[in-house]
Design goal:
Structural class: mainly alpha
Order of helices and strands: HHHHHH
Number of strands: 0
Strand content: under 5%
Radius of gyration: 21 Å
Shape: extended
Helix content: over 70%
Number of helices: 6
Largest sheet: none
Length: 168
């Protein structure tokens, strides 16, 4: 086993264990904090796949924005959040079948993906950030600007809708 494989397995294990804690923990604070490790594990896997832009985006958007917002929302909520987790065998059997199918599919996809990935050549991997930046500011500048205007209109519409409901 090479060092690259060992690093992959370590980050995959971190991501899987913290993801399981997110799903199965009964304490929402523990779930939110283990989501942090899940996001960092996914970002590390992106780095191993030489997708540096996705890794940085993962950390900036998910860890820096969404997770912090989620943690503030959970910590500022005074209500106790509880969920009744009682399920019968009628619901558990289809859930286990679906989980087995999804796990098998993910295992097959990860095997076929990681089979061809090895240690980078002596020249090293090429970064994608510069190429994406040039493409966004040259070839795709019009769709980029249209998307920003559409998002701005959606934000203004949401603010107007919230304001209208508050005044009513």
């Amino acid at each position: 086993m090479q060092l690259f494989d060992l690093v992959f397995y370590v980050f995959a294990l971190i991501t899987l264990i913290s993801g399981c804690v997110v799903v199965f923990s009964k304490n929402i604070i523990y779930s939110a904090f283990s989501l942090l490790f899940t996001f960092f594990g996914v970002a590390a896997l992106y780095v191993l796949l030489h997708a540096d832009f996705l890794a940085v985006t993962q950390i900036l958007i998910y860890v820096g924005g969404i997770l912090v917002l989620l943690l503030f929302g959970v910590m500022l909520t005074n209500n106790v959040i509880s969920v009744d987790m009682k399920t019968g065998t009628i619901q558990a059997i289809p859930a286990l079948i679906i989980a087995a199918v999804v796990a098998g599919t993910l295992a097959g996809l990860s095997y076929s993906t990681w089979r061809g990935v090895g240690v980078p050549a002596a020249g090293g991997p090429q970064t994608t950030t510069g190429t994406l930046g040039r493409m966004l500011m040259t070839s795709y500048v019009i769709p980029f600007e249209i998307a920003s205007v559409v998002l701005l209109v959606a934000l203004i519409g949401a603010a107007m809708t919230a304001r209208r409901h508050r005044n009513s």
